[in-house]
Design goal:
Number of domains: 1
Mean pLDDT: 80
Low-confidence stretches: none
Radius of gyration: 20 Å
Helix content: 55-70%
Order of helices and strands: HHH
Strand content: under 5%
Distance between the termini: 58 Å
Length: 118
Amino acid sequence: MKAMNLLLVSTMLIAGCSTAKKSSEVAANYVPSTTYQNMSCNNLRAEGDRLRRSVSDMEASVDSEYKKDKNMELVTWLLFWPAAFAMDGNDAEAQKLANAKGEADAIRSAMISKGCRM
């Protein structure tokens, strides 16, 4: 029973230390829709399509880095625990995804304000 409690506490500590995020946890950064107001509906639609493909790739990258970070964190805790505090997570990938999500929201808002067909 003691071993089970120790394993549970250890797992909770390991899971709580990394700053890595899943793609579903990344919130969109604000991008003003005025950035896209001068574009035609066709251009907005094309840009939105391009961005959706890009966001999909970014989400896969963020999730992949999340898994790698969590695995590395486990190994780090087992082999040399002080190094676990120096891990940086997947902040760069998450930031790119947050920006892309914000751009997608801005394009959607611009399309709505122009009365474009979605």
